[in-house]
Amino acid sequence: MAQVKDESFLEVRNVHRSFWSGGGRVDVLRGIDMSVPSGALTMLRGRSGSGKTTLLNLLGGLDRPSAGEVLFKNRALHQWSDRQLTVIRRQEIGYIFQSYALLPLLTAWENVELSLRMAGTSRTQWKERVARCLELVGLTKRMHHRPSELSGGEQQRVAIAKAMAHRPHLLLADEPTAELDSQMAAHIIAIFRDIVEAEGIAICMTTHDSTLWGAADVVYQMVDGRIVTQ
Ligand SMILES: Nc1ncnc2c1ncn2[C@@H]1O[C@H](COP(=O)(O)OP(=O)(O)OP(=O)(O)O)[C@@H](O)[C@H]1O
């Protein structure tokens, strides 16, 4: 799908995030400016503790900045009510975590179907969409398996199918390859590229794995709560 990338799709303006911990203030993000373009693969790289997860949580509306703004489609996330944010999180954003977050008693198919149910997608579309997503991640043959019957890489691929099934505009992934060997990590990134190209979904992920950065359209490097290069 040929697309014009929209730089203002998701914008971060002078964002700070501090926490109170052990009686003192910890300034984790210290003035972040960046944008996540639509229909592209963006990576946040940086050492452990540099603030990648904290930033990703802000991008997905899971947390609020102490100062500054996160604008999703030109509107600051803090201007949305909690109710509106819940709708955005459920319908427009998909989340992929390091630890797959699948329901253990449901099969791969049922796990993916559940996200369509949660997003309020019409039941008539479920079958075709679940089949399409499992095909995209190469798991058609494993569709009736439960998570415990799948390898770590397969579970992560189900988690990806689940996160994208409801056609979010943005997929956020926190260290999605951290638990996987290098071959499976490369496979996951190839799937991300397919999703970006075929579905036009923007993906923003964190990783400290330098072998993966080359596959990104945009890479931001974080050091001590700041972005140092692009
Ligand atoms: N709720 C919190 N309260 C206090 N400190 C926090 C909180 N959340 C994060 N931090 C601190 O902020 C820093 C950055 O954490 P963050 O998880 O964003 O880093 P990261 O770059 O994602 O690291 P990793 O690669 O290890 O996941 C860490 O020093 C962490 O201890």
From TrEMBL:
Positions in coiled-coil regions: none
Which Gene Ontology molecular-function terms are recorded? ATP binding
Q: Which domain of life is it from?
A: Bacteria
The residues the entry assigns to the signal sequence are: none
Swiss-Prot/TrEMBL keywords = ATP-binding, Nucleotide-binding, Transport
- PROSITE patterns (alphabetical): ABC_TRANSPORTER_1, ABC_TRANSPORTER_2
Domain ABC transporter positions: 10-230
| PANTHER family for this protein | IMPORT ATP-BINDING PROTEIN
Query: Under which name does UniProt file this protein?
Result: ABC transporter ATP-binding protein
Taxonomic lineage is: Bacteria, Bacillati, Bacillota, Bacilli, Bacillales
